[in-house]
Design a protein that fits this description.
Elements (H helix, E strand, L loop, with lengths): L2 H12 L15 H11 L12 H17 L2 E2 L6 E11 L5 E6 L2 E5 L4 E2 L6 E9 L5 E2 L4 E2 L10 E5 L23 H10 L4 E5 L9 H6 L4 H7 L2 E4 L8 E4 L1 H8 L6 H11 L5 E12 L1 E16 L10 E7 L5 E2 L2 E2 L3 H20 L7 E7 L7 H8 L8 E7 L25 E5 L5 H11 L5 E3 L17 H4 L5 E5 L18 H20 L10 H7 L1
Parallel strand pairs: 6-9, 9-10, 10-12, 15-18, 15-19, 19-22, 20-21
Antiparallel strand pairs: 1-14, 2-11, 2-14, 3-4, 3-13, 5-12, 6-13, 7-8, 14-18, 16-17, 20-22
Helix pairs in contact: 1-2, 2-9, 2-13, 3-9, 9-13, 11-13
Length: 539
């Protein structure tokens, strides 16, 4: 958006500004949250699609509010951390996978093979089956033990072993951080793989990821409408594609094995059954119909801690500002997702900055870009931190904190939703830091929200991997997603301001203020527990 245009819409938003008073948790204002979100989810910002002018306007607004609150820019003299991106559209008609055995070959195209890559590629390689594609030293488990993946295409199952076993060293009833696609692709790359083919685990008791995404109305149209994006210097530099179960069975059957039998063997003994697939070569061709470079921005400000011995340590409040944009006059306002989190971070920045009581540790307020395109802003920050990740003590991440959780097609039959959630807040990721959970619960005695941890025991919807706390958890940082839950307006044009529960939202932010203060002032910060099951058993 041109500067003059931005200043005009910013002036409109400024009409509703309310003085923040003396700061502190009681200064958090539902009226101010409503005014801010009415602007952020307005037609003027065009749905805040990454690399579009609405996203730029949102970033400028956040930076302006951080400056007015009195935060210090985290990136030198700027609140903006620039993120070089590649935007691309896969050409499905020119992309294919060919399985060759001897002189014969069989071609697979979409939907038997789905996904893309930011570069056009042509790979021909033999295939190895690598179980769930997991290397987890703290769990004494490695699917790559005994196989050579160098230069190979790796075939793996989605999710993780023993998913339905509550006694598993893995989560059992949910997911550990090893089950995410990003981690699996990075692990394959570390073992020298040229590409990854991932298939839904055959013995699952829940929908596959593709079936899950198909439950969201307009999901396939969304994937076709929105271009893919990737970091220019992405940590993962090999493609990961999803394949259908028929193709996976055909590849595995050359060794006289079946996917169901392989998963059953892993689940029963928790031992790898990986092997090289004999007499087969896969040719993988990926082409893009369009490709361009662009720059997005994380907006990051800090409030320096008051204790000389502790101010080098950081507590992070985060959210993402992007959403799904404008298409054929259909505006995706993104009021809850994630306008609510964005204005929440801004309101907390005002409340902390205006308070005469300064926390001992430094507070960071970060609003990330391109979350909807694959957590790109937070992955970029984790790879290029503006403050040392080793001294980042906790992350409070807001993503959809403005609604009451209600049943929807996405959750139907997969998660039980209470009849009344008007006072409920979900916390996701506390299994990795019971001390974080204890700190929040202690402060909640003053606030009175109903805290719910059910999403830590979800193995169907991949919740743990789907917001900006996840890249921090991969770096052993206690990081929790604060979330009021799904509803039928998720990723729809109907996610609008009039449906937000601003009183509840203000209450959540007061709890986060108190919790953040406690984490910032505590003598010992919360610990990250890499192996929660073993830690719990040892207590």
């Amino acid at each position: 958006m041109r500067k003059r245009q931005f200043l005009a819409v910013l002036a409109v938003a400024g009409l509703a500004r309310v003085a923040s008073g003396q700061g502190g948790p009681d200064s958090i204002s539902a009226k101010r949250l409503r005014a801010d979100l009415t602007f952020l989810a307005s037609d003027s910002l065009e749905g805040r699609l990454s690399l579009q002018r609405g996203s730029e306007a949102a970033a400028q607004w956040v930076a302006s509010e951080f400056a007015k609150a009195g935060l210090v820019p985290a990136a030198g003299d700027s609140f903006f951390q620039q993120i070089p991106l590649i935007e691309y559209r896969t050409d499905r008609s020119a992309s294919r996978l060919i399985v060759k055995r001897g002189a014969s070959g069989k071609t697979y195209e979409f939907p038997d093979v789905s996904g893309g890559f930011h570069d056009d590629i042509a790979i021909s390689a033999s295939v190895v089956f690598a179980g769930f594609g997991i290397t987890a030293p703290e769990l004494n488990y490695d699917d790559y033990a005994g196989i050579d993946a160098r230069g190979k295409i790796v075939l793996i199952f989605d999710h993780e072993p023993q998913e339905n076993d509550p006694d598993s060293i893995f989560n059992g009833q949910g997911n550990t951080r090893h089950a995410g696609a990003f981690v699996k692709a990075l692990n394959a790359q570390k073992h020298g793989a040229a590409a990854v083919l991932m298939v839904a685990e055959p013995n699952r008791k829940h929908p596959s990821n593709q079936e899950r995404m198909a439950r969201i109305p307009g999901g396939e149209q969304r994937r076709r409408r929105l271009p893919s994006q990737a970091l220019q210097d992405a940590e993962v530099r090999i493609p990961l594609l999803t394949i259908g179960e028929t193709l996976a069975s055909e590849l595995i059957s050359t060794g006289g094995k079946t996917p169901t039998g392989l998963q059953a063997s892993i689940d029963s003994a928790l031992k790898p059954v990986s092997f090289a697939i004999a007499d087969s070569t896969v040719e993988l061709r990926l082409a893009n119909a369009s490709r361009r470079r662009g720059v997005e921005t994380n907006i990051i400000g800090i409030l320096e801690g008051s204790d000389p011995a502790l101010r080098s340590e950081t507590i992070v409040f985060s959210a993402h500002h992007d959403h799904d944009g404008l298409h054929d006059e259909n505006l995706y306002h993104g009021a809850d997702d994630n306008g609510s989190g964005t204005v929440g971070v801004v309101e907390l920045a005002r409340a902390f900055a205006a308070s005469p009581a300064r926390p001992k540790r430094t507070l960071m307020f970060a609003v990330f870009a391109a979350e909807e395109r694959g957590l790109l802003g937070s992955y970029y920050y984790a790879a290029h931190p503006l403050r040392d990740l080793k001294t980042t003590r906790a992350v409070i991440n807001f993503d959809m904190i403005g609604r009451n959780e209600t049943p929807s097609r996405q959750t139907d039959g997969l998660m039980e939703i209470a009849a009344d959630t008007s006072n409920d807040l979900n916390l996701i990721g506390t299994t990795y830091s019971p001390e974080y959970r204890e700190a929040v619960e202690s402060q909640n005695r003053k606030v009175g929200l109903k805290l719910d941890y059910k999403w830590d025991y979800d193995s169907a919807l991949n919740i743990f991997f789907r917001s900006d706390q996840y890249p921090f958890a991969l770096h052993n940082i206690p990081a929790v997603w604060w979330f009021t839950g799904f509803h039928p307006d998720y990723h729809q044009t109907t996610d609008s301001v009039e449906k937000i529960n601003f009183g509840k939202m203000a209450k959540i932010l007061r709890l986060s203020y108190l919790s953040g203060s406690a984490l910032a002032d505590g003598a010992r910060p919360p610990r990250f527990i890499a192996n929660p099951k073993a830690s719990a058993a040892g207590r």
